Protein: Sphingomyelin synthase-like domain-containing protein
Amino acid sequence: MESSEEETPKEEAYEHNQYQENPVQSAKPRSEVFKQASPDFIKKAKGLTAIVAMLTFVMIVIYPPMTLRHVDCIEDQLLAQLQSQNDFFKNNRMLKKFLMVIMGALTDILLLLFMMRWTYNGGSWRFMISLFLTYSLRLLFGSLFKMRSPEDGDLWEFPGIYSLTVQYGNQNDYYFNPTLSICIQLLNEYRLDRQQLLMWVSLLALVGDCYLSYILKGHYLIDNFGGIALGYYIWLVTNNWLCYFVDVKVFGMTIHERFPNQQLQSDCQNCGECVHDWLQLDEIEKLKRQSRFRDTKYHQQTPQHSQTAATTQDPAPQNPDHQRQ
Structure:
């Protein structure tokens, strides 16, 4: 009995130290299925990756990937390979105009619908800031950089109906395509708002506008790529950084006003598990309370245990008079 009582504080102290070293490891396991690699393997993999990256830079310096062939203005090789599709729309102008009107109207409807939802339901100024930065950057590039129209002429003519988001007609300020920037930003907004149907419709508008503007030679390949990349990056920077200053510092919005309609992340987008279960907040708080209780109990029992052990090891000398009695 005495040995078991002596081991109890030691076991509690060991569990307390184990929790202090790694509190998350003491919690219940998560639902993800993965195999954790060893630290040595991770270091070797990183070292090998760094060596491959350095060799790649050396090869680029020694053997440049770009040819030294002279190009007069712009050479879009993919557009030249798709010339047959351009010829098809050249011979079917009614179909071309119909598709241009449909894609332009679809993008306009998505934009107007978002504006109405944002005005009525409220929310962050994130999209409006992204829209302002997108067209400001487009205006800057358009004034500083000009490109020649495609040699064979373009079919990106006025289809008969104006559009709010799509620019028609021959132009020389090609870079970048702002329509695709709006589409990718609307896609992100509807995805954050958990509007699956509108998100997929935005993706359809993105693909349709990209295809028509490229095949009809309204934009080059680099223009469409730049529109998607810059549009997404502008929205990402605005969402993670810029919108806070406008939402909170200017308008004094709370976090629930900034992210209405359950826009706050509450579950995993891949497995659907609750984010609180994944982060193990409740379990960690429980372990913290248990750790504080064990710590207090351990420090309370340690002096008593030491005093008992000292009494057992060094018994006090007995009084001879008491022995005779």
